[in-house]
């Protein structure tokens, strides 16, 4: 990429900044996993709750990543946790998945 093309690209999408974003993201989510037995007291984007001990990691994560990326990664993390909760055999909240009865489908 030449200098003229590089001038039109936002600096946070270049490889070095993306790597810093991913590293900050991974550190924040590692903190969440490490502190999962603590009561979450802080609210992040998309309703994600986290303990106050991870606040410093969250600030770094938000500082190093675009806001849209932070929301996207938070949504992915929440979706993954939700799926894992349903698949976890030890979790009492998961319950069976019920499908509609065949008689409720309309025949063509």
TrEMBL record:
Principal cellular location given in the protein's record = mitochondrion
Q: Does the keyword Mitochondrion apply?
A: yes
Q: Which UniProt keywords apply?
A: Disulfide bond, Mitochondrion
Q: Does the keyword Electron transport apply?
A: no
Compartment(s) where it occurs, according to its Swiss-Prot or TrEMBL record: Mitochondrion
Source organism superkingdom? Eukaryota
| Entry-linked InterPro entries | COA6_pln, COX6B-like, CX6/COA6-like_sf
Its Gene Ontology cellular component terms are:
mitochondrion
Against PANTHER family, the record matches this protein to: OS08G0441400 PROTEIN
* Protein name, as recorded: Cytochrome c oxidase assembly factor 6
- Which organism was this protein described from? Adiantum capillus-veneris
